[in-house]
Design goal:
460 residues, flavoprotein, alpha+beta, Alpha-Beta Plaits, FAD, Uridine Diphospho-n-acetylenolpyruvylglucosamine Reductase, domain 3, 16 helices
Length: 460
């Protein structure tokens, strides 16, 4: 297929079509190192027109396309296969902030902008783009959209689906779909942009988006609390919502095992250890002092035992680092079988109890590292030490997944809350997703991509 490289290079420029092993190396392995590929080439377009030209060429020659953003996928969604016949279209050069409309509280950005760049552009206009992830310095908006990313502030602001007003998308035949509206209300037919949010690049290639912005909070109250059980954690969440409404921006929980990892690798960083640690943040207009005083009074009235209230921005940052470093600390401690599950918030205690009991029965001594966005029911539920010394962990992966996903399904939850499905969970999706929903998805795929060139080998 080397005869195809010259016309591809003519579209993006020879310097922006990567073919050597050294140049393509950063694009062919997923973030966790589980999936590796060997593409035809990696194209780096700098405009939507160049993306459309690449897709038209690929459609004419039946070349499969793998869209890629910051390559932070944990499910292999942006990794090519080993056939040497797939073109990776990486969007890092498609990185302009096209417009900030402060009066309309919107921002229009290209898909290759990092999340941090979008946050900064919003902040420079005195506004907030509220999506917040540990990988925000490297993940890109196109990838955030393709997985319907959630993060730390979903409780108040919602996922990318709720934060998106319009999209620009290159369809599988190379047409440019201009649905880049900044409207908040529009009943003129189907909202077609929703097809592409969460589709992991299988229906089209997102090139730009118009996103919602919000007033920048001027006050924060952040506390780390210790509670005795998951039931008490959810009761605390409900009580906070009743007392503070949508000022409650984040509600994170970390198990005792998580806290032990912090103590192991960062001695003294934790002010206490408890069966569950809760990271709670309120945000509002006004000043920090009054908001912090309100939270302090509420905590005193509740009679919660362990607790630390951040007194300044430096302390607030240190508390958030305890939560945001969890994935890295666990990686440092060794491999694990990862789950990004979601259940109704009220069902979190039942899930933790039933799933923990079933896993301990199947794998005595198993270690469960559970943490995440309890305010929206999304837990990162990671398993290690199914055997002594953590030997043979991934030989047990299917058995572990079967236990976890069965409990999730029983509680009408999801096996992919914010990280996507990719190559990792496709067969589990076929098992647990409603058959009628799968049929609708396949029908949409067939209608938009009959040649099946968009990100093949993933869950559709």
């Amino acid at each position: 297929m080397t005869d195809l490289l010259a016309p591809l290079a003519a579209i993006v420029g020879a310097a922006n079509l990567l073919t050597t092993p050294h140049d393509i190396a950063p694009f062919i392995t997923d973030y966790r190192g589980r999936y590796h590929g060997s593409p035809l080439a990696v194209a780096l377009p700098a405009s939507s027109d160049e993306v459309a030209a690449l897709v038209r060429f690929c459609a004419a020659h039946r070349i499969a396309i793998v869209p890629q953003g910051g390559n932070t996928s944990t499910c292999g969604a942006a990794t090519p296969d080993g056939s040497g016949r797939q073109l990776v279209i990486a969007l890092r050069r498609l990185n302009r902030i096209r417009a900030v409309d402060a009066a309309n509280q919107t921002i229009t950005v290209e898909a290759g902008c990092t999340l941090a760049a979008v946050q900064a552009a919003a902040a420079s206009a005195g506004l907030l783009f509220p999506l917040s992830l540990a990988s925000e310095g490297s993940c890109q908006i196109g990838g955030n959209l393709s997985t319907n990313a959630g993060g730390l502030a979903v409780l108040r602001f919602g996922t990318m689906r709720e934060l998106t007003l319009g999209l620009e998308v290159v369809l599988p035949d190379g047409q440019l779909l201009d649905a880049l509206t900044a409207l908040r209300k529009d009943t003129s037919g189907l909202d077609v942009k929703q097809l592409f949010i969460g589709a992991e690049g299988q229906l089209g290639l997102i090139t730009a988006a118009t996103l919602k912005l919000f007033p920048q909070p001027t006050a924060h109250a952040t506390a780390l609390l210790g509670v005795a059980s998951a039931d008490e954690a959810i009761a605390t969440l409900n009580a906070l919502q009743a007392a503070f409404g949508d000022r409650l921006t984040s509600f994170e929980m970390m198990s005792e095992v998580c806290q032990q990892l912090v103590a192991k690798y960062q001695p003294g960083a934790l002010p206490f250890q408890a069966p569950w640690a809760l990271l709670v943040e309120l945000s509002d207009s006004g000043d920090n002092t009054s908001l912090q005083e309100r939270l302090l009074q509420w905590l005193a009235a509740r009679g919660l035992g362990d607790g630390v209230l951040a007194q300044n921005d430096s302390e607030r940052t240190r508390l958030w680092q305890l939560r945001e470093q969890m994935s890295e600390l666990q990686k440092r401690d060794g491999p694990s079988i990862k789950h990004d599950i979601g259940v109704p918030t009220s069902a979190i205690p039942a899930f933790l109890d039933a799933c923990g009991t079933a896993l301990q029965a199947a794998f005595p001594g198993v270690r469960i590292v559970a943490f995440g966005h309890a305010g929206d029911g999304n837990l990162h539920y990671n398993i290690s030490h199914t055997r002594p010394g953590n030997a043979g962990l991934f030989a047990d992966e299917d058995a572990v997944n079967a236990i976890v996903y069965e409990q999730v399904h029983r509680l009408r939850g999801t096996l992919a809350a914010e990280h996507g499905v990719g190559q990792l969970k496709g067969h589990w999706l076929q098992r647990y997703k409603d058959p009628a929903a799968l049929a609708v998805m396949r029908a949409v795929k067939q209608a938009l991509d009959p040649q099946r060139i968009m990100n093949p080998g993933k869950w559709l």
